[in-house]
Amino acid sequence: MNKVTNVFWIAIVLIALAVGYGALAPEHFAEVTGNMESFLTTSFGWYYLLIVSVMVIFCLYFLVSPMGQIKLGKDTDKPEYSFATWIAMLFSAGMGIGLVFWGAAEPLSHFAIDPATAEPGSQEAFRESMRFTFFHWGIHAWAIYAVVALSLAYFQFRKGEPGLISSTLRPLFGDRMKGPWGVLVDVIAVFATAVGVATTLGFGAIQINGGLAYLFDGIPEDSLITQIIIIAVVTVLFMVSSWSGISKGIKYLSNTNMVLAITLLILVIVLGPTLLIFNMFTDSLGSYFQNLINMSFRAAPINGENRSWIDGWTIFYWAWWISWSPFVGIFIARVSKGRTIREFLFGVLLIPTFISFIWFAAFGTTAIDVQSSGVDLTGLLTEETLFAVFNELPLGMLLSIVAVLLISTFFITSADSATFVLGMQSSNGSLDPANAVKLTWGIAQSTIAVILLFAGGLGSLQTALIIAAFPFSFIMLLMMASFYKALNLEYKAIKRKR
Q: CATH no. for residue 108?
């Protein structure tokens, strides 16, 4: 079961070609991928808006449907992890480092630099900044992850299929998914996972470097040597964790992440503009629900400026979450055995969305409050924004240290989880991939990040990943149809037995 399949070798070759292209001809690679991304977002933005909205409706339907009582596993299976640990694990894999990276920076950008429709710095821009940040990191993002995770968990644990994306399509295509078409589907998933985590390793190293440079005068800013050292240290740590398995390494890391994240969140709420944070959270929550349908389908076909903003933010995010869904979805499925469909969707769809809203209300409101007080944060790099905000608060050094620790643990957890998923996908869906396979993928991810940091091709590889989201979105549509077909047949059989 642990034997490496053709998926591994094909994916390795494709990744090597993409990385080699980005390293040897970074400018040409950037031009080609940039043009492709621009074409997809401009020509198919409407498609992304529709398909992601369909995914939200799909998940909400099964959340309230009588079919939600069916377990992701045999009827006697129990969850492997406590509810709190489960939430910590899926949250760490699903958002993690992105919340720290963008917690202050995105609302600030929507307020002071590039609002969706309002005047920069206005009260309307303040309200709009929080509403759109909630929108980009809320239920739509988690619905994308849930589609992959729900389908995979059902077929893997309920139907006994291998833990592969291709296995979820067998109700539609039968044994054809065991041949070249199935390999193609799984290669796309492996490519997206490896490239996605490699780019995250690179950007994570940049943010940790930025934080350390902001905290300590002796550390150079944007130093390649420092970033390589950070990646090397993180690689050793996540490989040690990966070696110990999910029930030890990832479980303990995820719980540590949540403790650090809750600690940092409480400190920011207490030390920041507390009353304003709670008021903005409440107001933004109402504004989010009031405008949810409009935001979900807003394509701005007539206003070119608004359309450009949607392409650069909303469409980018929908493609980004889709590109990450193979990795996050497979991992969430792996740790969700024994839960009912309804419990699964409540935990994956609603709880992380609520936590994200609180997080952005605290960090975004604090950043905008600092900006409004006369401290100009708009000229800073994204990785510096959070630390500049902390610098204006009491106990700023403590907050920054906790933030660097949190970024590091999220960093390690994401890489550890991805190493497991890659090992699983290249070993025919094995729930316990060989350590040698995980080690190979761990080294590969870190090597990709270092090469592209050195060559300056990290952003272009991220763009290539977003391009890969387009074909995978069609696979997700098929996954939804396949899941509904299989579950509906089972539910009818259950009703007949009654």
A: 1.20.1740
